Amino acid sequence: MARALILASVLLTLFAVAVADYNVGVGIADVTGPPTEITFMGYAQMRQRGRGLHLRQFSRAFIVDDGKARFVFVSVDCGMIGNGLRSEVVEALRARYGDLYTERNVMISGTHTHSGPGGFLQDILFDLSTLGFVKDTFEALVGGIALSIHRAHQSMQKGRVFVVSGELRDVSKNRSPTAYMNNPESERRKYKDNVDKTMVQMRFVTTDNNPLGAINWYAVHATSMNNTNTLVSSDNLGYAAIVMEKRMNGRAHPGKGAFVAAFASSNEGDVTPNTQTPRCQLSGRPCDVHTSACPTRRDQCVASGPGRDMFDSTRIIGMRLADKAWELWGSTSAVEMKGPVGFAHQFVDMPTQRATYYDEKTRSTKTVRGCLPAMGYSFAAGTTDGPGSFSFRQGTTSDNPLWNAIRDLLAEPTPDDIECHGAKPILLQTGSMTFPFEWQPRIVSTQLGQVGELVMACVPGEFTTMSGRRMRIAVRDALVALGAPESTQVVIAGLCNTYSDYITTPEEYEVQRYEGASTIFGPHTLTLYLAQYRRLAEYMARGEHNDPGPQPPELMNDVLSLQTPVVYDSPKWGHKFGDVLLQPPEVVRAGDLVTATFVAGNPRNDVRHGMTYLTVERLENNRWVIEATDAYWETKFKWERTSTILGTSEATVLWEVGPNTPPGTYRIRHFGNYKYIFGGVFEYIGVTQNFTVATASPSPYSYGSGRRVRALT
Ligand SMILES: *[C@@H]1O[C@H](CO)[C@@H](O)[C@H](O)[C@H]1NC(C)=O
Ligand SMILES: *[C@@H]1O[C@H](CO)[C@@H](O)[C@H](O)[C@H]1NC(C)=O
After folding, report:
1. Which residue, of 542, 571, 594, is where some domain finishes?
2. How many domains does the chain divide into?
3. How far is the CA of 226 from the centre of ligand 1 (A)?
4. Mean pLDDT on 630-653
5. Ligand 1 mutation target, pool 283, 287, 309, 314, most atoms within 8 A of CB
6. Which residues bind Zn(2+) (predicted)?
């Protein structure tokens, strides 16, 4: 009792301290991975290998310091974050800053784009489709994330932080509504929708109210680009960031402006951006709601929309997200953060966790436990955003002797594993698969960060809508009980620090949709997390160093890579690298798609961070000014090996002439690197002939209006 009183008074002082100003910093850096020949991370489709680039991937970092504590939030245009990736970033920071940035105060969240090159996680299951670990992807991410934090560090100045939120409809839908419906009715009645429609914006300004940056959290999958896309893209959230930054930064090219806007992931586990009704691709009929199956086995159930193709859908969703964030930026109802900066971090070994659970149905309390990681049958069915390759169905709760036999060759689940996973028929007992090393993580990072009354709950995977809601309530209630103000607000930072697949509620788990089948620590994964984050809330409120928990295994020395490197490049007979094989037309107009093709090397030879594979240039006072780089929506960069034996290849630059393009003399340049047959990588530059952009015909288009003259595919 006495301890509680002392604790309460300590907390009261802690929460009551009003901070006049924070020190804040924002930074952005390029993290684009090798854009060719590497399988994308997300849909697990071997054939979805990079053949160029549409939008560059960026890391966006935000630092807040109240004079006592410093906290870093980073949002990265990549599939997710893994233990190894984050620890390498922290190591890179340690080399430069000592103990200023550690695993305790650095929080890194992935946007979950499914169109970035893979191979950057270390656990085997996540690297199967990329033929193992891909060092180039990993290093591009580590270097870029660390650089974004470094830039944020260097830009630190006195500043103010505000939080505001608003509702955004028409960009998301629940892709497993039958699982959601299994949550208690009394709980569902508290919410209008079966997905969260609130955007939460944290904005950073100087003490004179000049804009510095914003983090916008919104729960939606970055899967507007589907599993047939082969151009690297940051998808809907990444495009929203580019649009908002462009509006604020004026002529600065993407990734180069001072204002940094992140669109970060949240509890998007069961949330799709593909807003049209899922349909069977061959027959065009709606699919079965519970299993997402089609009447014929070869047919696949896919959702798309709202645009006419995936690029159009990405643009529409991205633009709506950007427009909402823009509106929130202008809102006068934003609340200024005044409280302290705080954080708490702990690694936990999930299979050994225990918690008490109150079962609404039986009205009884029981002790529940974590299981060794395992994936269920419905995992192999995939989702309506990207169906799987075999004819598995979602909602599968019974098993099949043939698949079980194959499974047992890899690792046979024990009776205890089967009992532990409950409703989930086990397809892959990954927790027992140790050859040649770990298949899925069992030690995950858990973390809370706080800036004033806004608390970020960094979760090691994809929380479904209702899981996220329960987590927000649990953390907020725990903090308020410890003396935090009633105005305390919690956001879920998704795919954060560790990737351990999905987290559903125990009720959703029973239904075994894809998300439930991918909830790897068993039916009470969420129950265990709720208990864990309540403990974290206490650690954070006390502001003490807590037990760091068990370190995840170091896998860097074990990783395997079967990905062949670039062997060599050679130009086409009679040509040199950079030669133009197809010139743009002499005169083009707004709405035209300009194409130029060059003799090229493999873009994988150099990811050209902070630079570009192409420029569209306009002649101004006898000087060439860059109108667009490869990071613009209006440009696409495509690459093709024309002969593997000869090592020849071609790069094509596509540029859609926007209606606001100033008329004048233009040229396109391509920058590349080739690998010489006798060793070494060398740069080359190609340049087209000059061409004219003629005066635009009148058009309703503007960068922000979201209307487009012609499709670009
Ligand atoms: C992906 O989108 C394209 C349109 O951009 C469409 O033709 C294709 O059927 C879609 N594929 C899947 C698997 O969703
Ligand atoms: C393109 O225009 C520039 C500037 O006027 C000129 O220097 C250059 O020679 C032109 N290039 C070609 C191929 O005509």
Report:
1. 542
2. 2
3. 6
4. 97
5. 309
6. 112, 221, 462, 502
Residue nearest to atom 1 of ligand 1 (CA): 226
Residues 319 and 187 in one domain: yes
Residue 395: name the closest of 278, 515, 302 by CA: 515
Which class for 698: exposed (0-12), middle (13-18), buried (19 or more C-beta within 10 A)? Answer: exposed
Q: Is the pLDDT confidence value at 689 over 90?
A: yes
- Domain assignment of residue 391, yes or no: no
Residue closest to 467 by CA, chosen among 692, 183, 53, 660:
183
pLDDT confidence tier of residue 703, bands split at 50, 70 and 90 = very low
Q: 454 in ligand 1 pocket by Cβ < 6 Å?
A: no
- Does 233 lie in the same domain as 136? yes
Domain carrying residue 619: 580-693
| Cα-to-centroid distance, 349 and ligand 2 (Å) | 64
Q: What atom of ligand 1 comes closest to residue 227's alpha carbon? A: 13
Indicate if 80 and 216 belong to the same structural domain.
Answer: yes
Average pLDDT over residues 696-713: 40
List pLDDT tens digits, range 48-71: 999 999 999 999 999 999 999 999
534-563 pLDDT, tens digit each: 999 999 999 888 999 999 999 988 888 888
Q: 491 C-alpha to center of ligand 1: Å?
A: 33
382 domain-assigned: no
At 105-143, the pLDDT tens digits run: 999 999 999 999 999 999 999 988 888 999 999 999 999
**Sequence-ordered list of residues with C-beta below 8 angstroms from that of 111, at least 6 positions apart, any chain:** 75, 76, 77, 78, 222, 234, 235, 237, 238, 263, 264, 265, 495
595 and 516 both lie in a single domain:
no
* Residue 536 within a domain: yes
* Ligand 1: centre distance to CA 43 (Å): 13
Phi, psi of 145 (to 5 degrees): -65, -45
C-alpha distances out from residue 644 to 240, 466, 578, 601, 678, Å = 37, 50, 19, 12, 17
Same domain, 589 and 507: no
What is the pTM for the complete model shown?
A: 0.95
The CATH number of residue 650's host domain is 2.60.40.2300
Alpha-carbon distance of 173 to 154, in angstroms, equals 40
Instruction: Answer yes or no: is 192 within a domain.
Output: yes
Task: Give CA angle at 540 (538, 543), nearest 5°.
Answer: 110
